[in-house]
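User: Run a structure prediction on this.
Assistant: Running it now.
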Amino acid sequence: MKLDSLKELYVEELKDLYSAENQLLKALPKMAKAATSSALKKGFEKHLEETKGQVERLEQIFKALDESPKGKKCKAMEGLVEEGKEVMEEDAEPEVMDAALIAAAQRVEHYEIAGYGCVRTYAQLLGETQAAKLLQQTLDEEGKTDQALTKLAEKINVDAEDPVGEEEEEEKPRRRRAVAAR
């Protein structure tokens, strides 16, 4: 497809994000099921609900543009989801699996943050004020999800370092404080 204008690029990038979000709607329940940490499970379930809202916002934008959201497959998200599937197929200690799931989820979040940041800026440049607000709302949610994953990782990654409990219990809280202070 030839892109002759910023608006055409904007629509193509929105379609890419729409495809990405719909792929996530299928992947997040599987990630929640694979998680052993109840906090991580709840985080994936919460993000699933947010993702449904993000898809609805994208549909609103497409309706205002009088464009169809369909017709593009986000290959980057397809790859990220496939990597997540590979992680879930590993034979891993529960804490190590949770750490791997967090890493996979953060890769997804960073991809989405980059994509939404670009389309929000395009919307602003194109005078699509309402779309820019909706995209900023999604961008804010993705940032909060990334921060929540980082907070979970600060605990889970320490537990994954010594999943069989060989480390003295009093060492774990001290190491958690050191990791959190970085």
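The mean pLDDT is 88.
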